[in-house]
Structure prediction request, 284 residues.
Amino acid sequence: MSRIAIITDSASDLSVERAAAAGIVVVPLIVSFGPLSFKAGTELPTPAFWDRMLASDAPFPTTAACSPGDFKAAYERCFAEGADAVISIHVAHTLSGTIKSASVARGLLPEREIHIVDSMSVSMAEGILCELAARLAAEGTSAPEIVATLRDRIEDIKVMVVLDTLEYLKKGGRISGTQAAIGTLLSVKPIIEIRDGLVETVEKVRTKGKARERVMELLCDRPMEQVTFLHTVSPEIEAFRDEFVKRIPGGIAPEKVSIELVGPSVGPHLGPGAVGAVILYARS
Prediction:
């Protein structure tokens, strides 16, 4: 049986422990606070990122894709450790230049079997695909078959997040200061979704409680295979999870439910206090 290595980037929001448990290699993106740059998740662990992000005097962070050299080194390391093929699963090309770097790296190793998969999403939508790939690889599925399955299952994944504040959309240049001020005055909580690799505003709901209720209404419409709840240092994430799980049609096994803290590669775009869910819907 051939050995297949699974590689992703830190925009997948797979924790160090979760990635290690599945045997997934994570190549870190770069996050910068002013002149200081860090490799996300390694040089700047997620809790330390949030400490820095929430400091009153911290500059607004920016993120950047990893280099082709980073991916080439990761690919070569996997092959040196005995892999026969690599499946490299990444943040949507519409959201980052990461997949372009991975493609350049693949071109530098033309004799090697390297498959690149665009998750068409971000965060644990990407992470869930990686875990699915790892399970299939462990079962002896071939690399081309795994890639075909991943591309087929992308349509079964949905990501939806409620933002607690508009301040970080303003800082990131996504909305104007006037829009942010009006939204804050009206207690507007945008619900955002990743659709076909693009960030879309689903609805703008007054108050946090109503926005989270609406997310549950929108998502809990059919059976689920796996759910990961996302948050950006929100103390309310467990309560959100508990209420959400009660509404899943047919229920779900506890081991298929998890919570992840959004990391440095995605967190700057959401700001603190956000909660959301990434769903892998079950096939009938």
Summary: The longest strand covers residues 198-206. Residues 174-183 have pLDDT under 50 and may be disordered.
